[in-house]
Amino acid sequence: MTLKINRETIPTEEIIYSGVQEQGVELDYILPDYFPDIFRLVRCEVIPTVADYSIVGSTLSYELSCEIRLIYCGEESSALQCITQKQNFTKTVELGKTPDSPSTFISPKTDHVNFRAVNKRRLDVRGAVSVKICVSGEKKQEVICDADGMNIQLKKAPMKYISQKLCADKTIQLSEETEISAAQPPVLSIIRCNMKVNGIEKKIISGKLLAKGDISLNILYASESGPEPFELTVPFSQIVDMDGIDESFICNVTAQTASCNITPIADKNGENRSLRVEPEIKLVCRCVKISETMVVCDAYSTVYPCETESSEIHTQNPPTVYAESFRHTAKLAEGEAVPAKIFSMWCSPKNINTRLGNDGKSVVISGMLTYSMAAEDGSGSITMPDRDEAFEETIAIGDDISKGTVSAVIRDIAVSYNISDQGILTARADVSVDITASDSCGFNALTDLNVDDSAKKQRDGDYAVKLYFGADNEDIWDIAKRFSTEVEAVMEENDLSDTTLENGRMLLIPIKE
Predict the structure, then answer these.
(1) Dmax over Cα atoms in the chain, in whole Å?
(2) pLDDT digits (tens, 9 = 90+) for 168-183
(3) Is 351 left (phi over 0), alpha (psi -120 to 50) or beta?
(4) Which pTM value belongs to this model?
(5) Per-residue pLDDT tens for 19-48?
(6) I need a surface site. Which of 36, 361, 454, 466 has the fewest CB within 10 A?
(7) Residue 151 — left, alpha, or beta (φ > 0 → left; ψ -120 to 50 → alpha)?
């Protein structure tokens, strides 16, 4: 009699690289002739984005773009002037090995920025940007799914795993012209633009993925009467080619905001009363197919000595995304520090950390919320101050996610404010957050099985049945393996319907010849 073994190859995921790269940002800028002299610096921002990336062999290359936006006032007018410059950097990362079917996560953020006026016509900016990078790859693991012969006994369990993964990124640039309302003043320059992508609808049509949604733009522009807010929504509908996709795939589509070019357009009177808006976003599409197989997690022979080798297989289930929200309030100023007029207020997240709650059914999100505003102080000067507020929120999910890992992305922050009768400026931020729970299952599976048929097992006596007192919650498999008999025989002899003993009891163990 020979032992026949059936094997199956299971794809698993492994982290190839996880780390942070830093990039310095320096700008020595002389104003063009058509800009007024610098009288007072108001604000400077460095906005980093990753335009493109690729993996060739064991090297990751990506293009880092940093937009420097510096705002100042001239001496003869309180109208804001905005200088915008871009710096591009080509960065590389040695991953250490070549990943198979890689998944790449790249997230840049501004660490700090300092700026000063060298003289009335010259600006100096120094800052730093850091880029968080994580690359995972697919790893093949061969496991035993069945065996027959030589009185072999198998303990099997079902295992779900990602059998196929499709990835596609598509960068889209939209263009739309819009008019500001008649009640708003003409546009002098664009101060800032905040983009967010609202909920994306997805649908599989004829082997392609259709993604639909819209982009909300919150624009702040400079006018002769001060900063002026303007809001706009731009819809999009895109078809993404993903070879082999069908209805059996589970798809997740997210959007990363890249840039937005905004150009004021003059009317026949020479006033900028229209805007050409060109937002650019990247659609990140990840689709997976889930398969299930029976895997052997333990084995023994009732007659012959047997040796097994096992390995813990880590399989990645499709992540579950929870759309949640919380509210944060902050006292920003009081008394004379309260601005005379507030044109616009917004809030940005910074240094967000996520961890599981102690109960396994909640997520703790902490970090910093930076409240910013465009305002006018008591002297009539335009200011754009920031205030950092630490926060920590516990959000109940309901589902048990204790065996997985969690991450959070703040999708949107809606800010409102109030000045009380006591002269206290209080801001309220309604924060929308997407919490992703990724369940990585560790499964102990047999990878090798050898039966020695040169000699049979030695019994400690000549008997057909043995008495054994089973412990609470003891597995019948462990009992049968200890006595080299069959699980079915033990259950039949003792009239058991469950493979786990609920309460300790005396058992009759039939011994196989």
Answers:
(1) 110
(2) 889 999 999 999 999 9
(3) left
(4) 0.82
(5) 999 999 999 999 999 999 999 999 999 999
(6) 454
(7) left
